[in-house]
Amino acid sequence: MILRKIFSIAKYTFLDQIRSRLYLVIIFFCALVLAASLMVGALAPGFSVRVVFDLGLLAIEVFALLTAVFSAVTVVTQDLENKTIYLLISRPLPRPLFLLGRFGGIMAAVLSMMAAMAFFHVLLLKVNGPWFLDFTQGWSFWTAYPVLILMSALKVFVVAVLALFFSLFATSAPSALVFTFCLWFLGHFGQEMSFILNKTLAGFPKFLIDALLFVVPNFQILNFRDLFMTPGFSLGSFVGWGSLYAASYAGLFLILSFMVFAKKEF
Amino acid sequence: MPASQKKILWSLFSFLLLLAVFSRIQADRRLSWKYPPPQQLIANEFFLNDLGFLLFGARRAAADMGYIQFLQYYGSGNLSNTINKPINFSPVNLARSPFSTKVFDDPYLAESAVGPFPRLLEIFMRIMRLDPFFNSAMLEGGSVLAFNHERFDQSLSLLKEALAWDPGFHRYRLYIAAILYKIQKRDDKLADLLFQAIQYPDCPVLLERVLANLLTKYNRTAEAKKVWEHIAATAPQESDRIDAIKKLQSK
Predict the structure, then answer these.
(1) How large is the ipTM?
(2) Which one has a higher pLDDT value, B98 or B65?
């Protein structure tokens, strides 16, 4: 019964998402950037597969991030603006389930987009010739590629949860967007930052910064795009801990979102 | 929210918190970050672009862009629309620089910016500091500097640093040895090493051409022909393939 309720809200949100103009525009631009990567790849003969591969994965992740963040930030605020939230809240529906359904729908739309773009990306790689299959040194392409997309999806999932939390917590949508993007950048730059700070700080300030960086999500753990071809990288042992970290971190903020949403007065 | 629901959420929250901390520690332990720290990035006019890529966790893509910029520079002689001169690494510029970090204060890079294509070493250092595992680009950089421009010290310094970042990539040692033979003018030894180098698919065409010319010079025409045939069949750039076919036809 509960699952059915969540599913119907998720289905409604999913359909709403894929019909929205923003979603379609983002898909269009992502496809355009992917196609353009083919031209950029042609500028580097001998490395065209690498260029199309790297730029394509980056484009898929960035456009999925944009879709997820904008949708997650606006999902509740739009319901408030359209006053549709009163119809739903007045029913015997626990608020966490409503939020879970809405968020599930957004993530379903984002994952569908990522899957479609990944399919298009593989087609573009194939244009370069069959040797794209040998490109992933040491890994079978068909093992490495889905894992890379999965890890990108996990990153996007964590960021979308953070965006949802900030949209409920912050006073306006722009501030929620700013907070979310700051965490996205910090999550990628934390590793580099901690290196610099460890060289310059000591004692309590160092402990404080280390603690802060520990609280901030570490996206480099999930950044397989850059990691998977570095020597000694163990795909098998890393995927499990990375996924567990992403799932638990996202779950944590999802619960915080439930708590904040439950306290909201309409 | 009813108290029972609150209790469930809090217990779930505590469990997930523990799980997140534990999995983060485990993942951190397994994550050995092998990339150069950001203060070692080459801070030229593309520094902000590189930083942008880093903020999106895209070092490899940034290095790809760096490599394309090398090809444009080597093809046209211009690195960007605005700045075509090498960076002046003088102390005055250093003090003025908005990114006043150690990378600007690199006397070796400053001294090396001479001759045709003065920024070659800077460009390849930039690629290497972004992605030291872009081995093929490093091999190409080392070959271009040593065999096209005879800047052996620059080439060796590039390859030695690349080897320090990725000591498991043994082809760097092969290339370093080949450059040392070239310096000592021991062409027979050089040819042997180049024969080994061209067995690998990521060997730059430049090296194959060097080998073919070397073999022709010592009247080993049958072997030279084989190398030209290999270039004609496998070179990624059409101009190289056409050139190889012309060489074969002239023999």
Answers:
(1) 0.89
(2) B65
DSSP string, A73-126: HHHHHHHHHHTHHHHHHTSS--HHHHHHHHHHHHHHHHHHHHHHHHHHHHHHHH
b/e map of B65-93 (b: 16 or more CB within 10 Å)?
bbbbbbbebeeeeebeeeeeebbebeeee
- Determine contact: A37 vs chain B, CB below 8 A: no
Average pLDDT value for chain B? 82
CA–CA–CA angle A110, A111, A115 (5° rounding): 120
Residues of chain A positioned with their CB less than 8 A from the CB of B237: 45-46
DSSP state of B199: T
- Which residues of chain B from 176 to 215 reach within 8 Å of chain A, CB to CB? 202
B68 contacts A43 by C-beta, under 8 angstroms: yes
How far apart are alpha carbons B179 and B194 in whole angstroms? 10
- State the greatest distance between any 2 C-alpha atoms of chain A, in Å, as a whole number: 62
pLDDT digits 0-9 by tens, A89-107 = 777 778 888 899 999 999 9
- For residues A50 and B67, give the distance between their C-alpha atoms in angstroms, rounded to a whole number: 11
DSSP state of B103: G
Nearest to A118, CA basis, from A37, A57, A160, A58? A57
